Amino acid sequence: MRFFEDIEIGSRRELGSFTFTAELIKQFAAQFDPQAFHLDEEAGRQSLFGGLAASGWHVGSVCMKLLVADGQRLTREAIARGEEVAVWGPSPGFRELRWIRPVLAGDTISFSSVVETKRTSDKRPEWGILQARNTGTNQRGEQVYSFLATAFVRGGARVPDPSRYA
Q1: What pTM did the predictor assign?
Q2: What is the pLDDT of residues 27-42, one digit of tens each?
């Protein structure tokens, strides 16, 4: 992963795609969001969704999985090039979560992340704080999901002794 000072506002990462099959929608819903329109095709058709709909939490979980997998891929590639890899810290949260359109059985959602803002942390100047808009778009080009994520990112030029935080 890149260091804070190497990340540009507007930089975009394509995270990958995922097809929400009826079977996967039902499996997730049975365990985490057992509402009828996530579990049964007929109930889905009779709902406002008009079909078996994936839980919004399912869509968010897939986005997170692809975000982490893309970060791991970038890390492996940087190591293979012999580059130093930045440590990314925890996320202090997210805002503006939106389930814009239903994700129905058979939909393939492509996820991406675009950096919107960045600033140096006031309390820990060796860390930066960035915000990225994460979105999901279906196969028809319609945005179905969006949230604004915040993450701590280590700066490369200002890395102190790690034992300071032990």
Answers
A1: 0.89
A2: 999 999 999 999 999 9
